[in-house]
Amino acid sequence: YGPALLGSSSSLLDSLDQGKFGEGELGILQAQQDDPQSVIDLPFTIDKGLQSEDVFKFVSKLASKANVSISEAAQKEATEIIQNLWSIYSRFEGVWFTFQLAFDGKGQVSVRSPFLEFDDFGVKRVPELQDLYANRKRDENSAKAEDGGLFYIKLPQGGNVGSFGYGAGNAMATMDGLALAGGRPANFLDGGGGANKQNARLAIETLHRDDNVKAIFVNTFGGITQTDVVAEGVIEAVKENNITKPIVVRILGTGAERAKQLLSESDIDFTINDDFKEAARCAVERANQ
């Protein structure tokens, strides 16, 4: 698996995808899944990079797909633009770039709706990104979560179930479980390295502050993680913030028995279930009540 250049005519994307395109969403990937023939795909390797002859052919195929007639000069200019964007992507640790190329019929090419996403973890290694990162747009809730050490992403078209786990894999699996149960997660939330009362509390407070969240699903498996400490943070958040949203908890592993005891004896109406599928189903059900 390596990088790839994907292209399609905006007229071939449905209205939802066109609305997303250029905003960092994955509409063009959805189009590729729904209709593979609508998308031109140019995979390549990091060591080789984007070769001008390959990009030139890519632009030609893209123009043909869009039923657009372009001159050789415009084709060369589009090729150069794409290669320059790739240089930025590879040099500054890009993650996802989207943009539109517009041809005016006179040989001129312009870039519209550019969206350039870079790896947050690359900021310390790439000085040129530091000012951009420091001044990035953030809503207040996301800022509090990030500044507190959480990895939190509110989904732009998220659902009504707040999702929380420790470890990126666990957090993503928690979201998948909610989707498979017929629900829609409102967010991605990884408690980060080193579970403690403070980040567990902050996680619950973050989800509570999201008005779209109607129920919260806490899914934690303790290996190194002390799940009883997580439980203490969850309880503390609920009591000190008077949280009334339903909270479904699945806790297994290190400290789980004590964690469940703490939750049960907290005088808070937690729903505790060890079965992942059943816990996810219950969270979705509570959110939709």
From TrEMBL:
<feature type="domain" description="ATP-citrate synthase/succinyl-CoA ligase C-terminal">
    <location>
        <begin position="167"/>
        <end position="280"/>
    </location>
</feature>
<dbReference type="GO" id="GO:0006099">
    <property type="term" value="P:tricarboxylic acid cycle"/>
</dbReference>
<dbReference type="Pfam" id="PF00549">
    <property type="entry name" value="Ligase_CoA"/>
</dbReference>
<dbReference type="InterPro" id="IPR005811">
    <property type="entry name" value="SUCC_ACL_C"/>
</dbReference>
<dbReference type="GO" id="GO:0042709">
    <property type="term" value="C:succinate-CoA ligase complex"/>
</dbReference>
<dbReference type="InterPro" id="IPR016102">
    <property type="entry name" value="Succinyl-CoA_synth-like"/>
</dbReference>
<dbReference type="GO" id="GO:0000166">
    <property type="term" value="F:nucleotide binding"/>
</dbReference>
<dbReference type="GO" id="GO:0005739">
    <property type="term" value="C:mitochondrion"/>
</dbReference>
<protein>
    <submittedName>
        <fullName>Succinyl-CoA synthetase-like protein</fullName>
    </submittedName>
</protein>
<keyword id="KW-0547">Nucleotide-binding</keyword>
<dbReference type="GO" id="GO:0006104">
    <property type="term" value="P:succinyl-CoA metabolic process"/>
</dbReference>
<dbReference type="GO" id="GO:0004776">
    <property type="term" value="F:succinate-CoA ligase (GDP-forming) activity"/>
</dbReference>
